[in-house]
Design goal:
About 70% of the residues lie in helices and about 0% in strands. By secondary structure, it is mostly helical.
């Protein structure tokens, strides 16, 4: 059923998480991260952190529905954006790090879906939601970084990637949630200028192709970085259900924004 409010989104995410634990599926990694983010947005709305709380709930639902619809389409063999296809297909690749799986989901969702959702909820009048767009992304960034910092429990050698922090070719280090957020706003501004359906669809298709290529860069690493990722993976937990439970543990009891 389509999500009508933020509680519906949380229920659907819970269902994905439970199914992923039951089937030992890596699809649950992003769902566990996204549950925490969505719960954080709900808390932010309740605390009055937004100029227009009801509109931000609508944005959250439109935004989340793009992920939920894409996942359902992929599972049932229907067409899906290339950005999401590469992310979902990657969950069947056991050689990828948990971090890579999460980045692929974030890349598709923030780099493509967020701009589309912003244009939809504002009817193209983006300046009316600019402040709240920044506020909602402050929450997304804070909670996402929180989760990324926590996964060192399941990936104890993850800090080895810091050895490559000065390597500008390293897309894993270059990937930034803040940069993705800024890119999403620029994409939304471009999309909002498209006055015909053909131009609108073409703009999304071009963006989708760009993000699909970024996804490929997140997966395909070379040289010493590839060896480092192999080493990290060697000591990373392998049981997807156990990883999802660890990521999701305690989220309902405590959501910290900051």
């Amino acid at each position: 059923m389509p999500a009508l409010n933020i509680d519906d989104v949380l229920l659907q995410l819970e269902s994905i998480i439970a199914e992923s634990i039951r089937t030992n599926s890596r699809l649950g990694y992003f769902a566990a991260l996204y549950y925490k983010v969505t719960a954080g947005v709900k808390a932010g709305i309740a605390k009055g952190q937004f100029e227009n709380g009801p509109l931000m709930e609508k944005l959250d639902v439109i935004f989340a529905s793009r992920y939920l619809d894409a996942l359902n389409a992929w599972k049932t063999g229907q067409p899906v954006t290339a950005s999401w296809r590469i992310a979902f297909d990657a969950t069947k690749n056991s050689s990828l790090l948990v971090l890579q799986q999460l980045f692929l989901g974030m890349s598709a969702h923030i780099n493509l879906d967020l701009g589309i959702a912003a244009v939809a909820v504002s009817n193209g009048q983006l300046e009316a939601i600019h402040n709240d767009f920044d506020n909602i992304n402050t929450i997304i960034s804070a909670l996402t970084y929180q989760v990324l910092n926590e996964i060192d429990q399941v990936s104890p050698l993850l800090s080895l990637l810091g050895l490559h922090a000065g390597n500008q070719a390293n897309i894993l280090i270059q990937f930034s949630i803040d940069n993705a957020r800024d890119g999403a706003w620029c994409f939304a501004e471009e999309l909002a200028t498209k006055k015909t359906k053909a131009d609108y669809d073409a703009c999304i298709a071009a963006r989708d192709e760009t993000i699909f290529k970024l996804g490929g860069s997140l997966i395909n690493n070379k040289g010493f970085l590839r060896f480092t990722i192999w080493l990290i993976h060697l000591f990373e937990w392998k049981n997807a259900a156990h990883i999802i439970k660890t990521m999701h543990e305690g989220v309902k009891a405590k959501i910290v924004v900051g």
